[in-house]
Each structure stands twice: as C-alpha cells, then as structure tokens.
Write the structure tokens for this entry.
Amino acid sequence: MEPTAARAPSVLTRRVEALRAGIRLAGVVIWVPLSVGFEALLLPIPGVLKIRWTRVIWGVLCKLLDLDIQVVGSPVGTVGGQKGRDRGERPVIYVANHSSWLDIPVLGTKIYSVFVAKGDIERWPIMGLVSKIGRTIFVSRNRSTTGRERDEMITRLATGDNLILFPEGTSSDGSRVLPFMSTFFAIAKLPRLPKNAPPVDMPSYPPGLTPLIQPISLVYDRLEGLPVTRTRRAIFAWYGDMDLGPHVWQFLKTRNKRATVLLHAPLAPEDFPSRKALANAAWSAVARGAAELRQNRDTMTGWQPDLSR
C-alpha cells in the first residue's frame, strides 16, 4: 500500500489563513505609527517613561502577532534611569541567541532595555521605525565607526540604560546556538591600561557600576498549540538569504504560537580573566538552556531548568 501524501490545505483554509494574516497586518500597520508617534513626544522628557512605553509598544505588537511569551527566571536589571544609577544599581547587558526578527519584540516586551542591532535593521519597514524611536543603538561593520559606537554603548549603560546584544553576530536556523564573538563583550570588560600609559579618550563606568551580564535562552516552542519540531522551526527562524516579506506573511497566517524566554543567573565580568572567557561562559549557559527548551520540556508541568548554569 503506497503512503498517502500530505493533504494540501483546502481553498477555504487558505482563504481563512490569508484573511487572518491580513487582519493582523492591518493591526500592526495601525498600531505602530500611533505608538511610535506618542513615544516621539516622550523622548525629550527626562525619566524612565519612554523606557516603559517602549515595552508597551513591543508587547502590543506581540499580541497582534498572536505570539504568547513564557518567561522562566527574572531579569536582574530594573527600569534603570539615571536615578537607578545614582542608587547604585549596576547596568545589565543581556546576551541572547538569535534566530529571528521576532527576537526583538519578544525580548523588548519582557525586559527594560535598548537593543544593539546591525545598521540594516534601521531600514526595515515597521521594525526599523520602532527600533529607531526606541533608541536602539545601530552598529555597522565599518571599523572607522567602532570606537564611536563603543563609546555610545558605555555612556548609555553608565547613564541608566540596559542593553540587549546578540553575540552570535547573525541569526541561525534555531536548531543550535552559534559561538559568541568575544568582541561583543568588550564594553563589559574594559581593557586595563598600564600605569604609565597615556590617557585614553573613552568613557568609563563609575566605581562599582560595571555592567553585569545576564545570559538568555530564547526558543520558539509552540505552533498551532503543538510542540515545534525541527521541520517547523522555519516558521519562526529567519536567517541566511531568506526574504523578509514572505516570511512575515507566512508567520501571520499561523495561530497559537509561543516563545519561551529563559533568564539565567547573571555573570560578573570581574570574575573572568578575559572577555573570551566571559563570552564562553555566557555561550555555555545560553546553549544548554536552548537545548533543553528545544526538547519541548514544559515548565508548566513541573520541569524546572537549572538557572545557575
């Protein structure tokens, strides 16, 4: 008996999916300009209101995308702001694995922070607009701008912001975590200069306020209410030379999706001899956590990850 081929979606099913995607896209197109316009009014106002509102923007966007978010663990950083630094709150650099354009709204919904993202994102429709008004730090591959971008990140951390980095340097297919590039950790572990070295024109952190590193494992683990298998990860993962438009449209047609965010114990940069050792420790925590989440263990049924790793 010959195996039965997978049944293609009916005409009605395809129309329902297209209608669903169209409604969601319309909601996004309406929400983003309104919310971003309001944030633009908040930018000149001192304080943390603009930081809180950015989180609202991402949260509503995830609702419109029908993407639920499960969080395991807690972020060590607060909303921050200059008052937080004055109280002695250390800044936090969150480092996460990266597999999709969805990573930005997912993490932005749950963590008070600003993103460090490649300059290409600034030109994206919708996401680029939200990222720019949300005070994202855009970085390029041009070495001539590296020092200026580093100084901006240090200044942001010292004056009240927390940052989210994707140290893989690119997105993956979601089946593994690529090695972390140690250069991303340079702002957490500034070089020690010899006593007789000439002064260097770069910002630094106030005493006791060097940033902590908190590793994050992020996995998309539910689709249509079922565990995500390897063959279905492409619904979420966006990498390589995949076109953004078709990927977004395909994603909008699906239902009952979930991302799980696993926040590990923070790492103190001063406990590591080099930024490479720090990067390896962060990668190890993220990779092991992501591997556990990909096994579709559900924290709601009793499984508890080891957050100290």
The domain at 11-189+203-299 is CATH 3.40.1130 (Glycerol-3-phosphate (1)-acyltransferase). The mean pLDDT is 86. DSSP finds eight helices and eight strands in the chain. The two ends are 50 Å apart (CA to CA).
